[in-house]
Design brief:
alpha+beta; 6-stranded antiparallel sheet; Chemotaxis protein chec; homodimer; globular; 6 helices; DNA-binding
Amino acid sequence: MLIGEYEHSLDAKGRLIMPAKIREDIGEKFIVTKGLDGCLFGFSQNEWLNFEEKLKTLPLTNKNARDFVRFFLSGATECEIDKQGRFLIAGNLREYAKMEKEIVIIGVGTRIEIWNKDKWKVYNSDENISADEIAENMTMLGI
Amino acid sequence: MLIGEYEHSLDAKGRLIMPAKIREDIGEKFIVTKGLDGCLFGFSQNEWLNFEEKLKTLPLTNKNARDFVRFFLSGATECEIDKQGRFLIAGNLREYAKMEKEIVIIGVGTRIEIWNKDKWKVYNSDENISADEIAENMTMLGI
DNA sequence: AACAAAGTGCTTATCGGTGAATATGAGCAT
DNA sequence: ATGCTCATATTCACCGATAAGCACTTTGTT
């Protein structure tokens, strides 16, 4: 189970340290693709297969579904962690997620998310997410 | 059953003594997450697994669900109690809960809560109406 | 062929986490 | 009250993870 929040920085070539605590779980090779809310998603190989399976079940007759599938599959790249614990994020993905220098990586159960630090802060600010809303959502979601 | 109120202090590296009376109940390894009202929650591994199972079932396509999962999982860290009875609180959680030096740990039945001492005092002096709501929500979570 | 751009790999310095040793204090028994 | 034991507080030293800089390789372009 991937959990936690980690701050790191891109080097001049667009490489990023994979937090030590996540490295074992996600594996040496993993998949990075465009994510929702302006971040990138990262899946271990197993979780990626799961995810692909889910995408396959979507009805291709539905335009929304086709768009959804294209979005995730076209953005996907395989990444490999080097001897120093870093991996390269493809140029188009860096651009999509507005990656500059300061990056936040979070673990979200079955995947990781890679955020521009400023965007992550804004996303987490009180106007967007408050603990009270979270508490309300808990009931709405029927948990 | 976790009960009681204990005052302790963070050391220079952000470590905290786990009160002796709680240590047996919560186990050597446990989970700390962002809590409500500016405190941190601590769960034994069993309690946490329950919670994880429920989070896994939430749909990726629903924004509320994403927010909710991100809040709890990105805010979660596994902590281990060392030979001297201390555990490290992750930097982002210390920041979230405004941890400085003086800390209060309370037992709340199935979880512990970790408070900045000053905030705990303020919280206790207020008649805090939302406490009932929170309690209700937590019940529905089955935590 | 020469060059630029992108990717890969190495080296060093620094910082945070970890463990050990010691000090302080509270509670208990004699 | 005195001394003992256990829990907590404080300090220091070490080690591994990360940041940053630089050099080399590969690829593609002119």
